[in-house]
Amino acid sequence: MDDLNTDVIPGTLDMLILKTLSLEPMHGFGIARRIEQISRGVFKVNPGSLLTAFQRLERVGWLHSEWRQTDNSRRAKFYSLTRSGRKQLELETADWNRRASAIARLLKAEG
Amino acid sequence: MSLWRQLIRGVRVLGNRRAADQEIADEVSHFLEEAESAFVAEGLSPDEARRTARLELGNATAIREQVRWYGWENKMDTLFADLRYAARRLSARPSFTAVCVLTLGLGIGASGAIFSVINAVLLKPLPYPISERLVALTHTAPGIKIERLSLATSLYFTYREESRVFEDVAMWMGDSWTVTGLAEAEKVTGLSVTHRFLDVLKVPAALGRGFAASDADSTSERTVMLSDGYWRSRFGTDPRVLGRSIVLDGNAYRVIGVLPPSFQFMDQRISLLAAMRISRAGVRLISFCCQGIARLKPGVTLAQADADVARMLPMAPAKFAMNPGFARNAFTDARIAPRLRFLKDDLVGEIGATLWVLLGTVAIVLAIACANVANLLLVRADGRRQELAIRSALGAGLGRIARDLLLESVLLGAAGGLLGLALAQIALKALAVSELPNLPRIDEISIDSTVLAFTMVVSLGAGLLFGLIPVIKYARPELAVGLRSMGRSLTGSKERHRARSLLVVVQVALAMVLLVGSGLMIRTFRVLRAVDPGFSAAAELETMSISIPETQVKDPEGAIRMEEAILRKIEALGQVSAAAIISTLPLEGGGDNPVYAEDQPMAEGAIPPIRRFKYVSPGYVSAIGSRLIAGRDMTWAEMYNRALVALVSENMAREIWRDPRIAVGKRIRASLNDDWREVIGVVADLRDNGVNQKPPTIVYWPLLQKSLAARDIAVRDVAYVIRTPSAGSSGLRQEIQQAVASINANLPVADVKTLQSAYERSLVRTSFTMALLAIAGAMALLLGVVGIYGVISYSVAQRSREIGIRIALGSPRHEVTGLFVRYGVMMSGIGAICGLSGALVLTRFMKSVLFEVSPADPVTYVAAAAGLILAALFGSYLPARRAARVDPLEALRAE
């Protein structure tokens, strides 16, 4: 393993989970896998943080969960977005874009 | 919404911890399995896959714990665990816990009980809808020196007709009737009221109807309403009582309704409510008879109502004719002015000051109890220093240790609160059965939600308060000190019991305040006891009252002859040494009316000062145990001859003629066209308004007189005073009953009691306050001395090595003792000084409960301080003596 930081940027884990789930319902490992793959290994999600985040998001009402069979016939807890979760994703995405582009502008101006 | 979900989820998790844990465990293990199979899919062997997954993702248990920790319910979980731990620690020390809970329970119970009284008497609204708009229609009349003037019928009509601020006006008076024809003749009390009375209160009849305008007419049928209690006991809740006729004082009254069970009014004992029937045309201007109540229109203030009454008062003379025999401008000369009061204030009266003093007292007791418990907790926390040091060395945070210490004290507080509630309940029960405190609204006193909330806040607040002291001192343990002291202890550090000494100083200061307070009350009580009330040996004076209605004996002289016959029968009873008749007993007041003196000419139409009127039989002065200052008593012959004679009180004689001897032979009369009556005797003053009130000036008229129109007037409602050593015994009461019945079997005997009980009643607020303060003061003193004892003996034990060294080096033993005694006296001295200055400020609030004693009474202060220092000396000498007995060899060898 090299020393590259694979931590998720603080405060963005919720958004990443919501985004991933906006495509289809998934279980915990699937979400972790998807985040890792799509970010091309830049972000690796710690399972403890991920599962805690599920608890939190579910209590806020953005996620819905149910136990289902997976493709390889194991029982897994599948998460899906609720309507307010979808709304929250839009909010967070817009907010992130606004801030990210601001940072990008700042960094560009420096150079 | 999401808060709600948080709550629900948390509660569900708490409700089924195991299922929740299992779900998390399943999810974690599924995660790890999927990770493993992913690694296998990448080409690793199952074993390698498992190892890599563990390596990259971490231990399953650790993940579980991390996930499991989320949610408020988990913090609750540790709180419960801590609570259980604290409870277990407390139950491991039963005697310590018992002492703490008992101390707190007493303090909280006392505060709770007094607060329930304050809540019921002062804070709760009266039991009528929108009762804060009810006012008592009271006036003052400086022109005739009347502080509190009630309502006249003329003013009642004036206010009804002219008012802009009153929604409704009514008039009432306490009344009593002899009910005949039901069972045995019975004296029954109640109110006579004008027809809108219940409408002013907004109380509807429970059965039948309330009074209507048609009941108020002097030509209409007499009507009456029954109280729920009277209806139950006399008519067995028979609804057919409506429309029935009952006989009151020989007149038939139609029963039209029954009052609701909860009905009460101004602490009057109400069995019946009779309608006043007034013919407006017959009303004269000066017709003060009754009390008035009114309901203010919404938004009207008391000041506005006063202003409106002031506007209406001058209208009355134009509406109503002046009474015959009065000067034309008598009404205006009285300078009547409004002094409306809220009905509740009128009912509660002056008791508020006493109650707040009592609450202050028990609050101080509670503070002392808290200081005491804090002291005990400090000792305990001191014993746990090592444990706390180790815990904090192992990583327990400041907050965790603080919570641990606080939980213990909050638990103690809560337990004390529960015990306190039970004690308060018992105290209130005792209060309800004793007629001791003479409280208004006593029936309304109970432990309601307000009292519960108060007790809860007080107990938790107390728990936090005394719990914080050890927290501040020990939650941040100095590791080195804490751990080192496990080994050989050093000589006691001053630092260690500075907190305890401070607490003792606080205790002593508070005890000082209570001692001064109780000292002031004791002095007040002694002064009051020494006051000559105007009668003597009241414990040997039996009193009872009867009334002879006109329907039984029409002729006034006949009524008086019957009263005398009863008196003779009673005098003939064994052991009765004297007996007499009076219209109203001492301490029970009577009418107040102007009296003219022949040699004090009044300006045309002016009204002379008013005097208390009492009507007596011959022999009254000696029977009551009073003295004739000058002159002589009247005789039965004079009474039946309608002789123009009267007795006056000493203060009245001095006020008018400056010398009682001069008064004899002077002439007085009660109205302008009355006959002049000769003052034949001057009687010692009587404290008729209460022992702690100034004695009113009194005229004693004969029971039977000839009035203006040469008509006989007899007093038909009379009380007997009977001097006998067997006063108060049931045997005597039976004999009296028989004596009355042998003359007239239709006369109910009422209000049987000794004059002593009325005397005690008039002192009861003072004696109750004194008793409570004295108990509180004694307890506080005891606790303070115990506190000093504790600190000194602790300090002796701590410093035994040092003492050993001192003695070994040749210090005289009495000097060692002196060292500790000086410390104790210093603590109590500082406490006493703080307490004395505190008392100077606080006792000012006692002014209204003191009698001829200044709140800054130097004797009390010096005595209290001396007593306290002496007690402190004693409390510190006992343990200090032990210091002198320390054996240097043993002390140095120990440990």
Description:
The complex is a heterodimer of chains A (111) and B (895). Chain A contains four helices and three strands. Chain A is α+β, with helices and mostly antiparallel strands. A three-stranded antiparallel β-sheet of chain A has the order 1-3-2. In chain A, α1 crosses α4. The longest helix of chain A is centred in the last third of the chain and has 28 residues. The model of chain A has no long low-confidence stretch (mean pLDDT 84). With 895 residues, chain B is α+β, with helices and mostly antiparallel strands. Chain B has five domains: 69 residues, no CATH class; 185 residues, no CATH class; 202 residues, no CATH class; 178 residues, no CATH class; 198 residues, no CATH class. In chain B, the strands form five sheets. In chain B, strands 17, 18, 19, 20, 21, 22, 23 and 24 form an eight-stranded mixed β-sheet that branches. Chain B has a six-stranded mixed β-barrel with strand order 5-6-11-8-10-9. In chain B, strands 16-27-15-28 form a four-stranded antiparallel β-sheet. The chains are: A alpha+beta (111), B alpha+beta (895). The interface between A and B is medium-sized, with 23 and 27 residues.
